[in-house]
Each structure stands twice: as C-alpha cells, then as structure tokens.
Amino acid sequence: MNQQPIPANPVRRILTASLIGTTIEFFDFYIYATAAVLVFPKLFFPGSDPTTATLQSLATFALAFFARPLGAALFGHFGDRKGRKATLVAALMTMGPSTVAIGLLPGYASIGIAAPILLALFRFGQGLGLGGEWGGAVLLATENAPANKKAWYGMFPQLGAPIGFLISSGSFLILSKTMSENDFISYGWRIPFIASAILVWVGLYVRLKITETPEFMKIIDNKQRSKIPIADVFVKHTKAITLGTLATITTFLLFYLMTVFTLSYGTTVLHYPKSSFLIIQMISMLFFGLGIPLSSLLADKYGRSQMLIVATICIMAFGLVFAPLFTTGSPLTTAIFLSLGMFLMGLTYGPIGTTLAGIFPASVRYTGASLAFTLAGILGASLTPYLATTLAHNYGLASVGYYLTAASAITLLALLGARTMISRQTE
C-alpha cells in the first residue's frame, strides 16, 4: 500500500516555532507575576495593609495555576485528536488577548469591586492558554527530534522561560528607570501587557508556517487516535500521570520561590530598591539559561532520570542554606544566592519536558504531558508565593528553605519510582 510521505519540518523552523511561542507565553505570564508584587496590591486591592494587599494580589496570581489543568485537558484533547499545530495556534490566541485585556483594565478607584473580579477572570484566561501551550511546544520539538537528541530538541521550548523572564523584567526595569513612581503605577505598568499583542502576531506568523509532526501523522495513518484522551490518561496511564506530576513539583516550587517570593521579600523586608533587585534577578536568569542546555546535553548522554535525580538532590541541599544566603542584605551574596538557585532550576527544567512527553504514548501525549506539568503547577507553584510569604512572616526565612527541601524529597521519591518507566524511553 502506498503511503503519503510525511512532510518534514526544517530543523530551524521547528525549534524557532517551539521557542518563540513559549517565550511569548512566559513573557505574558511573568509580567503578571511582576505586576502582582509591584503594582496590583496598590491598584486593585487598596484599603488593606501592605501585607494583606500583597497576599490578595498573590491569590489572583495563583488562580492561573488552577486554570492551567483545564487548559491542558481542553487543548490536550484537540492536540491529540486534531493535531499539534492548530492547537498551538489556538492556545496562543487564548493567552494573548487575556494579557492585553489586563493592560487595559481600570483600577479599583475607577470601577470598584469589578476591577479585581475582572483581573481574576483575565488571569484565568492566561492560565487556560498556557495550560495548552507548553505541552504542544514540547511535542513540536521532541516529535521531530532524532532519537539521540530528544532532550536537546526538547530544551528549546524550555528556553522560553528565561528569555521571557528577561524581556519581562527588562521591560519593567526600563519603565521604572524612565518614569516616576506615580506614572509607573498610573499607566506605565500597562505598556508591557498591551505591547504583548505585537509578540503574539510574530508567534502566529511562525507557527502558521510549520507542518504537523511526523508522530501525529502516523497516529492518523494507523487510526490510533484516542476518542477521549483525558479518560485514557487517568484510566490507562495512572502511574505515569501520578509520578510525572510529583516528579515536577520541585521544578515549579523552586522557580516561583526564586522569582515572585524573593522579589516580594527582597523589596519589602530587605528593602532593596525594586530596580536593583530586578537587575539581580535578570543576572540570575542567565544562569537559568545556562543550566537548561547543559542539563539537556547530560540527559541525552547519561539518561534523563539520572540527570533529574542529581538535580533534585542538589535542590534539597540548597533548601538548607536558603536563609543564610538570602538574609545578609548584601547585593553580592543575594546575586550568588539567586544565581545558584536559578542554575539548579535550569538543571531540573531542561530535561523535564522531554521526560514527561516520553512517558505517555503518542495518542495521548499532548494531554498526558500537559496535565502532569500543569497539575504539578498547582501543587508546586500556585500557592507557593502565598505560603512562602506566610511562613517567612510567622516562622522566619529558614522555614521557606525547609519547605523547598521537603518538596524536593517528594520529587526524589517520584523520580526513583519512575526510573523504570523513564528508562524505557530512548535516552
């Protein structure tokens, strides 16, 4: 029987499409995280004391993480049924308008209680879009990759995280340097949200140029598409979704401790100027970006499970020195602390996408990988800034480090339990 040849995507186009999409998505996500600390407590939650307003703002930040599994299930269904390409475009078009809408939203002083309600609604839209974006971007890369370079290809969408953060923080840094505090609170913070529309159009242009992945075309040819992917994930692949979720918790927790929590704590408790702290965070992102390709190269050479286990043990140890490194008030020590934490973040983040994609069969891979990643976001990130702020306020900064170490222990056990499953992948 003659089979239609599977169209090949040029390598550069594949990797660009996977990278640029996640860069845009994470840029949108991070500008919210930054504004949730620096602007939203004053603009959308006035009348509360500073700590309460910050906690209320961080609660809306957490909302997106509960929307992400819904996005994973929704977009994952269509990604496994209709294809990776169209679903990736739809995910981008869900998050982009939500971000622009936040930039146009009047504050509490103008429309009262409707302001925080609409903020929460648009934040939910951001989470819904990102829930469908990440898994599709990883699959676009890994399903086009040679067998011996799966982790290397799979790290390109992961690079969107540090790049998106650098663009986000750089935008806020420039704005804070070029306008007064009043102007920044009044309208300056809105500029990155509204400008994201330009980035979305760039992302759409690139993604509309790609063709479907070879592995999905094989599913269609062999008539192997799942009728209800989410049901198959939880019924037929219960071990994979459970261990995959638990193995990813620390990845999320570490990142949001080192970004959102440290920004809040550093500017309110240690009294760093926000511009100074943003510069230190941007320096640490370079180490994050360095850790991602390094860990991916090592994962392809020595195995993904081994790489993730070593990275997790290092993070457990890092949690024990969290407080001593961060409480000195020295910019140099703080820079070392953040850079070390973000380098460890790169070591665990680089191979995690390829690992999650590989533990599910291609017929439910979009749904399975996306759900494991986003469910881990709920457990490891949604309430992390809120809980860490509460722990630091009530029990001291050392308790935040112990929180990280305890989560790492759970991840380590999950990785050990999943070693056989991961080893079945082509490493």
Automatic annotation (TrEMBL):
GO terms for molecular function: transmembrane transporter activity. Keywords: Cell membrane, Membrane, Transmembrane, Transmembrane helix, Transport. Gene3D superfamilies: MFS general substrate transporter like domains. Coiled coil: none annotated. It is found in: Cell membrane. The chain crosses the membrane at residues 12-33, 53-76, 88-111, 117-140, 152-175, 187-208, 243-265, 277-295, 307-326, 332-352, 364-388, 400-418. Residues 14-426 form the Major facilitator superfamily (MFS) profile domain. The keyword Lipid biosynthesis does not apply. It is a multi-pass membrane protein. The keyword Membrane applies. It comes from the Bacteria. GO terms for cellular component: plasma membrane. This is Metabolite-proton symporter. It comes from Mucilaginibacter frigoritolerans.
